[in-house]
Every structure is written in structure tokens, then in C-alpha cells.
Design goal:
The complex is a heterodimer of chains A (384) and B (381).
Chain A: H1 2-14, H2 16-37, E1 45-51, H3 56-67, E2 71-76, H4 80-89, E3 94-98, H5 102-108, E4 113-119, H6 123-151, H7 156-162, E5 168-173, H8 180-208, H9 212-222, H10 225-254, H11 263-288, H12 291-302, H13 305-308, H14 320-327, H15 330-344, H16 348-383
Parallel strand pairs in A: 1-2, 1-3
Antiparallel strand pairs in A: 3-4
Chain B: H1 2-16, H2 19-35, E1 48-54, H3 59-69, E2 74-79, H4 83-91, E3 97-101, H5 105-110, E4 117-122, H6 126-154, H7 159-166, E5 170-176, H8 183-209, H9 218-247, H10 256-281, H11 284-301, H12 313-319, H13 323-335, H14 345-375, H15 377-380
Parallel strand pairs in B: 1-2, 1-3
Antiparallel strand pairs in B: 3-4
The chains are: A alpha/beta (384), B alpha/beta (381).
Chain lengths: 384, 381
């Protein structure tokens, strides 16, 4: 087995294609993803205001909308239809409508309407804009209510208490910095690596495990078909673990994502994850014995895997069948483990389930691969 | 002209005679059309479980809990005696937030003091966090406003005046284009464009890697292939971008004609890009793996799920060279947001610009390839 492993490492070093797929491609993908999300939470998203009041109050509202962290007033639109056009064409992400007579009606106690329109087709951006506008308007209105009470002779401190009898203290559990970078990168890195590791393993097998003659030569070298197969797979396990480790150093070191859990669990989970993913590639190849068809199987399983992980749309809200399909994909459990151990500091006994699932998946895949390899061997011997 | 027909014939054969290419360009489209939307069929997040930690155990705290639980977004599914137990339930993913009502809540409320409550929402899942916060904040604010109004009225203020003083203006939020905030409505139209691009890139790049150097004039060769892509995708593109969204009940505000107008340069640019990808990587297996790995990065680079405003400039420039970036933006804005072609014409020009650039590049590559094989007689045979 060692001989096959050494041979594999030599191949990896000397073949530019193999090295490109196994080392350069994943590193490049990690670099791109890291760069996309490096800036963190989007700030200063452009919005339009339609100010038909042009009063001191409306102007101060516009200033507050501009100063909110999420939003920036990029356009002063003359009408709602102009604002709508700006949203549709993508120049702005939302618009705030301040109707004529706003200040006068507020002073008279007529409760005029302030309307925020936001682009909810781009839901992630739209909800940020809505939140920014909501907070800015809230702050402005609270200031107004305070000054009314102070005008009635209430002391400033008492007025602040009176306008908000049940203050809501909003806390973010587990992710106090509330940074999407944590959240998305923690899931995207394994997803992309899952695709590459499965495909690269199938490719490595296609080089010298495809024909009967090749397999027998490798089998003789390793002293059996099983060691030969392991000898081919394990060197890449180390390489991918190294790449995963490197990306984690970048993520937790350079980008400052918190790591609050057990390194041991993370390491064990990573190893089981990589192995399971590689075995998907191996199974696809031994079933088809053709790289092209194996790649198609791998594509069907790994390419849509991101949606099933529940990172965007939570798994609990999916149909049972979608949950089951997600549970069969190693990345689902590994991403859960990563989120648990990096952001949530989940206790060992809860988080261990993810690792156990990964081991079960890897075990079942291993059995399937071995059964298929043995079956191929038998039919080939029978053919002789 | 015969070079045009020969090239078209060769391309057709390359696509339809090769089982693997057929699998990618046709069968994969069907499979992905089933698998990709699968997680999002439920569309909406309702009644997210939240743990209630009620340390006050008064009638006011019970009233508050009742109001929160009757909101659409969240439901108070479990009670916990303290924060530690509650946090553990969240860690085990049995709940996604904690509503903490501290001791003395009612007492403070009755004495006219501030009586805060706390929401701890699971921020490791973005969507959950937002829904929990929103779901709990609305009933809380309402109750707070009622308390303040009650106090004002008790002090002798007229009810109308009191209401205006508590809430001087009505804040109305109007979500445009995806009013129900459905997740499938949000993500699928963009995903379909990307799937179309990735399968086309992969299939046509495979055809290109397996093609022998042609003899006809490079311009005619490229035009011949472009004609085949156009013909094939005139059938596939409307199926994928118009019929499929309709089958999944996604809103469609656009016109099929405009989708075709946008689709033509998208298809041509993608096909031409496939030729460049094939020339760069040369081997079919490599092309497949590289394109497979690039799917997700392409999606996030397109500026759809992750706003353009947050992507670094230099990366954004590169992203604009990928056909899906312009196509996703244009197709979503037209189909889901009702943009006229004139509103998104910059995207149309961008796609035609890509056709020009990639086209010139492909012709150049083809010319050099022909020159190389002409000077190398061994390859000619």
C-alpha cells in the first residue's frame, strides 16, 4: 500500500494536470470566495428619496437615511414612478417616500404615512435596506416624540423612559459581530472543496485504475485490491486536509472568524468529511469506469448540494424528502459541525452527532466501493 | 459558405453523437430542474420555534408571550426555566431564539418605569435571525405603544392626541416584486440562468476539446457553430427561463420575446466562452472539473445574492466578463421585476460586447491552430 501511495505522490508532483486539479484549483477557488466576502457586511447601499415635503423635518429624515450604516441616499427622485424606475434598473435598492405636508400633519397630530419601498427580489439586499430605513425613521420619530414631551415640561431623562415603556434588547446569539462572512464562508469553502475532492479522486482513479490490466498491476504492487485503492485515495486525503487547514488558518486567522469550539472535533470531522467526499468520487468511478460519466454523477450530487445544507433556507423548513437527501451529503453535516464549533460553541455531546453521521456516510460508501471493486474482479476472473 | 455548413454539421454531430455531451447539455438540464428547486419548495418560514424564559410569571408577561406567539413568523414552542437551558435548546437546533422576560417586568410596567425584555436570536443563520427579530419586535412595539397610550390617556390626554403623540407618523414598508419574501421566488430565476450557462459551457467545451482542427475559413467555422447553438437554445432557453419558472409558480412579468432578445447574446457569449475554456484547458476531464468548481463562485460573483456594492472592484471587473453576471441581472430584472428592455439595455450591450470580444478571441485561436497544424504535416493526416 505504501508503494502505491509513494507512486501516487510522485504522480501528483510530476503531472501538471493532477497538481492543477488537486492543488491549484481549490486554492484559486478559496482565494476568489475569500475576496468576494472579505469586505464583510454590505454598507452604504444606494437608495432614493422622494421628498415632496421639503421641510426641516423631511430634510433631517433624509440626512438620517444617508447616515444609516446600511443605506446611502444616492438619488433625489421627483416622483414615485421615477424612484420605481431607478429600483427596477438597479441604480438604487429602495426608496423612501416623504409626502407633501408631512411636517404640518405631524404637528397637527394627523399621523401621515412615510412609505419605504424596497427591492425584495434581491432579498438579502432588500431586507438590509428595509432595516436601515426603518431604524433611521424610527430614530427620527423618537426624537420628535421626545421633543414633544420635553415641550410639555417633562425632564429629558423621564421623557426617554416614557416614549419607550417596553424597550427591546436585541441580542445575536453566537454571532455577536453579526458578520455574513462567517456564515457564508464557513459553508462555501467545504461546498467547493466537496466538488473538487470528489472529482479529483475520480480523475486520479481514471489515470491507472480504469482498465483491468492497470488494476491488477496496482493490486500486485500493494498486495491486494483494497490496499491498492486506499493507496490511491489516501494521499489526496492528506492534500485536501492540508488545503482545508490552510483555508481555516486564513479564515480564523486572517479574516478573524471566531473559533469557539473543539479543535479535536473539527479535525475529526474534517478528516471524515474529506474521506466521505472522496469515496463519492471513487464510487462514481468504479461504477462507471469512465471519467466522463463519473463526473456527471458527481455533478448531480455535489453541484446542487449547497441548497440542501440549509445555510440560506434552513433545513427544518424543507420537505422531509429534501432533508433526507441533504442528510446523505457529507457537506451538510460538515458545514453544520463547522458552524457549531466556530460560531455557536456547541457542547461536545450535541456536536458529536455530526461527526458520527460523517463516519456512517464514509463507512457505507467504503463498503459500496469495495463491493463494486470485488464484483468487477470476480466478473473479470470469470470472463477468463 | 460550404465551410459554414461543414462547421455547423460537425458541431451538431459533436453535440448529439457524443453520449456524454448529450448527457450534460440535455439530461443534466432536466435533472437539475428537479433537484435545484427541491430544498425551496416550502418557500416561506413560518412559526419559527422560540424558547420562552419567563422569569416574571405575571399576567402581563403572559399577555406579552401570547402576542408574540400569535405572530406569523415565530411561535413560543417551549418554556425554559433559565437562559442556560434555553441556549442549549438553541444549540441543539430545537429552537432559533430565546425571549427573556426578566423578573419584575409587570411591577416596573405598573410603576411607569421602563420594563425591558430581551430577544436572543440565533445569528448563525441569517434568515432565521431576521425572521425571529422581526416576528418578536412587531408585537413588542405594539404592546409598548399601547402602554404609553394608556398612560397618556390616564393623565387626561385625548385618545386621538395620545395616539399621535405615541406614533407621530405611520411607517409603511412595501416590499416590491417578491412581496411574500418567498425563497424560491428569490433564488430560482437566477439559478436557472446559471445552470443553463454551466451546462452549456461544459457541453460545448467538451465538443471543442474533441474537435479536430477544421480546414475552412475560421470566420465561417465560428459562424457555423454559432448557428447551431442559436438553433438548439432557441428551443432550450425558453423552456428553462419561461416554462420552468411557470411550472414552479414563480411570478413572470416579462415577455417571451424580450427573454429571447436577451437570450441570444447570452447564448452566443457563453458558447464562445466555451471555446476559450476548451483552448485554455485542452482536456475534457479538466474542463469538466474546473467548470463544476466554478458554479458557486460564479453565482456569488454575479452580484445577485451578494450585492455588487460589497464585492471588491477588481473582482467585479472580472465578474463582468462572465456572461451569467449580465444575464442573471437582466433576466431577473425583466422577468421578475418587470424592467423594460430600455431599463436594462446596458446589460444587453454588455452581453453583445462579450460576444464581440470572445468572438475575436476564438477566431484568433482558430487561425493560429490552423496555421500550427498546417506547418506540422504529421498532424494533418
Amino acid at each position: 500500500m505504501l508503494a502505491v501511495m509513494l507512486r501516487e505522490v510522485r504522480m501528483l508532483v510530476t503531472s501538471p494536470t493532477l497538481a492543477g486539479l488537486v492543488v491549484v484549483l481549490p486554492l484559486l477557488m478559496l482565494l476568489i470566495l475569500g475576496a468576494v466576502f472579505r469586505a464583510g457586511i454590505p454598507v452604504g447601499l444606494p437608495i432614493a428619496v422622494v421628498d415632496h415635503d421639503r421641510s426641516d423635518l423631511s430634510r433631517s429624515l433624509v440626512r438620517m437615511l444617508d447616515a444609516a450604516p446600511e443605506t446611502r441616499v444616492a438619488h433625489h427622485a421627483l416622483s414615485l414612478s421615477e424612484a420605481q424606475k431607478l429600483i427596477v434598473s438597479g441604480d438604487v435598492r429602495g426608496a423612501v417616500y416623504l409626502p407633501q405636508g408631512l411636517e404640518r400633519e405631524i404637528l397637527r397630530g394627523e399621523r401621515p404615512e412615510i412609505v419605504t419601498f424596497y427591492d425584495n427580489q434581491h432579498m438579502s439586499t432588500g431586507s438590509l435596506v428595509a432595516r436601515g430605513a426603518r431604524n433611521a425613521i424610527d430614530t427620527a420619530l423618537a426624537g420628535l416624540r421626545l421633543s414633544v414631551r420635553q415641550g410639555q415640561g417633562e425632564a429629558p431623562v423621564q421623557a426617554a423612559v416614557s416614549v419607550n415603556p417596553i424597550p427591546l434588547q436585541a441580542h445575536a446569539l453566537f454571532n455577536p459581530a453579526f458578520d455574513y462572512v462567517h456564515f457564508l464562508l464557513a459553508a462555501l469553502v467545504p461546498t467547493v472543496l466537496q466538488i473538487i475532492a470528489a472529482a479529483a479522486t475520480a480523475y486520479a482513479l481514471s489515470l491507472d485504475f480504469g482498465t483491468q490490466c492497470d488494476r491488477q498491476a496496482l493490486g500486485r504492487m500493494a498486495g491486494g485490491m483494497v490496499p491498492a485503492l486506499l493507496g490511491k485515495i489516501l494521499p489526496y486525503t492528506f492534500v485536501f486536509l492540508l488545503i482545508l487547514g490552510l483555508s481555516d488558518i486564513a479564515l480564523y486567522g486572517w479574516l478573524g472568524v471566531p473559533l469557539r469550539g473543539s479543535l479535536l472535533l473539527m479535525g475529526a470531522g474534517a478528516a471524515a468529511f474529506i474521506l466521505a467526499v472522496q469515496l463519492i468520487g471513487a464510487l462514481a468511478f468504479v461504477l462507471t469506469r469512465d471519467m466522463g460519466r463519473a463526473a456527471s454523477i458527481i455533478a448531480v450530487i455535489t453541484a446542487p448540494a449547497f441548497g440542501f445544507m440549509g445555510v440560506g433556507f434552513p433545513r427544518e423548513a424543507m420537505s422531509p424528502l429534501a432533508q433526507v437527501w441533504g442528510a446523505m451529503i457529507p457537506g451538510t453535516w460538515y458545514v453544520e459541525l463547522r458552524i457549531d464549533q466556530s460560531l455557536r460553541a456547541t457542547p461536545f455531546e450535541i456536536s458529536i452527532t455530526s461527526v458520527l453521521w460523517l463516519l456512517v456516510i464514509a463507512g457505507v460508501l467504503m463498503l459500496l466501493v469495495l463491493a463494486q471493486v470485488l464484483r468487477i474482479g470476480r466478473t473479470e476472473r470469470a470472463a477468463k | 459558405m460550404s465551410a459554414f455548413i461543414n462547421a455547423a454539421r460537425a458541431e451538431l454531430r459533436g453535440i448529439f453523437a457524443d453520449q456524454q455531451v448529450r448527457l450534460i447539455m440535455i439530461a443534466a438540464l432536466v435533472i437539475y430542474a428537479l433537484i435545484y428547486p427541491f430544498p425551496y419548495r416550502a418557500e416561506l418560514l413560518r412559526d419559527i420555534p422560540v424558547v420562552l424564559v419567563d422569569l416574571d410569571r405575571s399576567s402581563s408577561s403572559a399577555e406579552l408571550a401570547r402576542r408574540v406567539t400569535s405572530s406569523e413568523a415565530v411561535t413560543l414552542a417551549q418554556d425554559a426555566p433559565d437562559m442556560i437551558t434555553a441556549t442549549r435548546l438553541v444549540q441543539a437546533r430545537q429552537a432559533y431564539g430565546v425571549l427573556l422576560i426578566p423578573e419584575g417586568f409587570e411591577r416596573d410596567l405598573l410603576r411607569g418605569r421602563q420594563s425591558p425584555v430581551a430577544i436572543y436570536a440565533d445569528a448563525s443563520y441569517f434568515l432565521m435571525y431576521q425572521r425571529v427579530m422581526q416576528g418578536a419586535a412587531v408585537p413588542l412595539r405594539q404592546m409598548g405603544a399601547e402602554v404609553e397610550m394608556g398612560r397618556l390617556i390616564a393623565q387626561g390626554t385625548m385618545p386621538d392626541v395620545a395616539r399621535a403623540q405615541v406614533s407621530p407618523a405611520q411607517q409603511i414598508e412595501v416590499p416590491l416584486f417578491n412581496p411574500a419574501a418567498g425563497y424560491a421566488t428569490y433564488v430560482l430565476p437566477a439559478a436557472f440562468v446559471l445552470i443553463l450557462q454551466q451546462t452549456m459551457l461544459m457541453g460545448l467545451a467538451l465538443v471543442a476539446t474533441r474537435r479536430q482542427t477544421g480546414t475552412g475559413h475560421p470566420v465561417w467555422n465560428v459562424l457555423g457553430r454559432m448557428a447551431v447553438w442559436t438553433a438548439l437554445y432557441t428551443a432550450l432557453l425558453p423552456l428553462y427561463l419561461i416554462l420552468l419558472p411557470a411550472l414552479y409558480d414563480l411570478p413572470f412579468l416579462g415577455s417571451p420575446a424580450a427573454i429571447l432578445v436577451l437570450g441570444l447574446p447570452f447564448i452566443l457569449a457563453t458558447g464562445l466562452l466555451a471555446q476559450c475554456v476548451a483552448a485554455l484547458f485542452r482536456r475534457g476531464e479538466v474542463v469538466q472539473v474546473v467548470l463544476l468548481a466554478l458554479g458557486l463562485p460564479f453565482f456569488f460573483l454575479s452580484g445577485f445574492a451578494w450585492p455588487l456594492e460589497a464585492i471588491p472592484d477588481h473582482l467585479n471587473w472580472i465578474a463582468q466578463l462572465i456572461p451569467s453576471t449580465a444575464a442573471i441581472d437582466a433576466v431577473v430584472r425583466h422577468g421578475q421585476m418587470g424592467a423594460e428592455l430600455s431599463d436594462i439595455q446596458h446589460r444587453l450591450w454588455q452581453l453583445w460586447g462579450l460576444v464581440g470580444v470572445f468572438g475575436a478571441l476564438v477566431i484568433l485561436l482558430e487561425t493560429r491552430q490552423q496555421a500550427a497544424s498546417a506547418s506540422d504535416p504529421a498532424q494533418q493526416s
